[in-house]
Amino acid sequence: MTADAETLPPQASTTAPVPGPARTALWAAPVLCVATVVLALWSTYRDGGYFADDVAAVTTLTLVACGVGLLVVGPSWRPTRGALVCVGAAVGLTLWTALSASWSPDPEGATLAARRDLGYAAFLLLALLGVGNGRRAALLVQLVVLLLVGVCVVALLSRLRPSLFDVDPQLLQVSQGRLAFPVGYWNGLGAVAAMAVMGCLGLAADAREHPAVRAAGAAGGTIAGCVLYLTISRGAGLALAAALVVVLVLSPRRVRLAVSGVLMLATVTAGVLVLSADRILVDEPGTLAAQEDAGRPVLVALLAIALGAALVQLALTRVSALNRTHRHVSHYSPRSRAATGYAVCAGLVVVLLVGVYATSADTLEGQAANGTFGVRGFVDRQYDAFMDTSKPPPVGTERLASARSSRSEAYEVAINGFQANPLAGDGAAGYEVRWYRERTVPESFRNAHSLELETASELGLVGLLLLGAMLAPLVGGMRGLRRATGGLTRSQAAAAGGVLTVWLVHSALDWDWQLGSVTLPALACGAAMLARGQRQPAASTAGMVARRRHTGS
């Protein structure tokens, strides 16, 4: 670029007409983002999008939306290399799954699995078309968080005011009181709630968001945390903890995230205390009428707690804004302000610990008296319980203190399948046949309860490589937590990365990655982090410097 061109006034570069395809993409991209979230919402209220008819419908609608999106946005779309690799690997995994029907013991099940994979690949492409070059990435993340919180609100109301919804009483008995509506699977709803918490945390901690959005994030995270408790999902709780650690380690906005996070933990603890006071709302199946009577006062209390979380977040936002405004006259150094923030976090942690002790004092004191409170002893006991499949797992909230389940044997059967056919596997949907042939416990498992292990067992090394090629760009997109690489702020990237991390961890522990209500929001957030972003080239930056010098500014 010549010196004369670099010194052109700013308006000279803004008067150029916008090309027709680019102008069309400006209005089409938000529509595609909305369509993406609508598909995820529709899948949620169709039993999580799990059964064959629902999978076929979602896949068909997504393919149609992708076709329209490619026609409208395609000419101006410039995907990143990671986005192309991710979509290409997803398509390759779909083709390999479909091909495995030729050697699978369940060809019909393999065809269903291929159709589901095709729907996921098309949905990922649709989300990438919606975010475009990063301009609408923030919009997509906000819509996804709104969707997740909306599902949690409906779930909570279905427990506290079941007369408002068509809740199947049989579902309450099958789940042994664990909250499952509207997803249809308690652990799936737990994953949705954990993703909602992480999404709300990122938005609540974003200094660039409108104060009302940050307050709504704090309130929504409180509601989602209470829903997570009602699902009594150990895997979802573990996935949430892992996502919190990942986001706090990677994000340079960790102080803001920690303050908003501890506030959210404190209000969730208060909500759990209210819920746990009446066991019929938690883990003692009762009639819907009994839940209605018990839920009315609890609903009022939880709304008050959520409102309190919003008001405290508003106050913190106001204090932070005043601090930035008067920073030039502040007598406190940045280190002192950071120390104050950590002190606030420590105080809120104390509040949280007091709440936990109030709910579990007898258990904790009993373990201490018996000499079983040590960390090493606890880990050893949980490992032994996880590996011992001779006893049934506990029920109700007692599950939260035990790792006992039949998952260890499910994982062992999946490993056996991979060892028997390491290259191509047993074929999609072949795990169920192997399970009934090798099981030693009287439980009916259709899936290996682990995406990676089931892929290895059914699709072999080829399937694992394709799955890894699909997931690697999504994980790589989380570098946006450390620096602005796309159309998201760091806090928005923390929201999207938190949602994706919950899915990555939980899909390794359960089978609900086959639920569209769980996987589609995670894929949308992954697409938002894969966006290229709206960056000016170096020449434009040099031109801006030259213009400042030319104008004397």
TrEMBL record:
CC terms in the record's Gene Ontology section: membrane
- Which is an annotated Pfam family here? Wzy_C
Main location per the UniProt record: membrane
Q: Does the keyword Membrane apply?
A: yes
List the top taxonomic levels of the source.
Bacteria, Bacillati, Actinomycetota, Thermoleophilia, Solirubrobacterales
Chain ranges of the O-antigen ligase-related domain: 304-467
Q: Does the keyword Transmembrane helix apply?
A: yes
Task: Report the InterPro entries cross-referenced here.
Answer: O-antigen_ligase-rel_domated (IPR007016), WaaL-like (IPR051533)
Superkingdom, taxonomy of origin: Bacteria
TM region(s), chain numbering = 25-43, 55-76, 82-101, 113-131, 137-158, 179-205, 217-250, 257-277, 297-317, 338-358, 459-481
State the UniProt keywords alphabetically: Membrane, Transmembrane, Transmembrane helix
Q: Give the subcellular location.
A: Membrane
Q: How does it sit in the membrane?
A: Multi-pass membrane protein
Name the source organism: Paraconexibacter sp. AEG42_29
| PANTHER family listed in its UniProt record | LIPOPOLYSACCHARIDE BIOSYNTHESIS PROTEIN PA4999-RELATED, TEICHURONIC ACID BIOSYNTHESIS PROTEIN TUAE
Q: What is this protein called?
A: O-antigen ligase-related domain-containing protein
